From TrEMBL:
GO terms for molecular function: nucleic acid binding. This is Integrase, catalytic region. GO terms for biological process: DNA integration. Residues 1-81 form the Integrase catalytic domain. It comes from Pandoraea sputorum. SUPFAM superfamilies: Ribonuclease H-like.
Amino acid sequence: MTWTQKQGIRLEYIEPGKPQQNAYIERFNRTARYEWLSQYLWDDLEQVREAAADWMWIYNHERPNMALGGFTPKQRLAMAA
């Protein structure tokens, strides 16, 4: 059993060479790569996991998102509730 199966995650693939089919994820991946993943030389996977958790918190709670009118995702979610 794979990790995704154990987590109850269903994988869906896009067609090769068609990143526009998954534009939001591609944009998020590019942002993550540019803002933190490529900025450091990592010693181990645990460092990457910790940095990812920290960055995700900042991304969702502190970093304004221009696609959301300059609000953070957390602020936008609160407005929708």
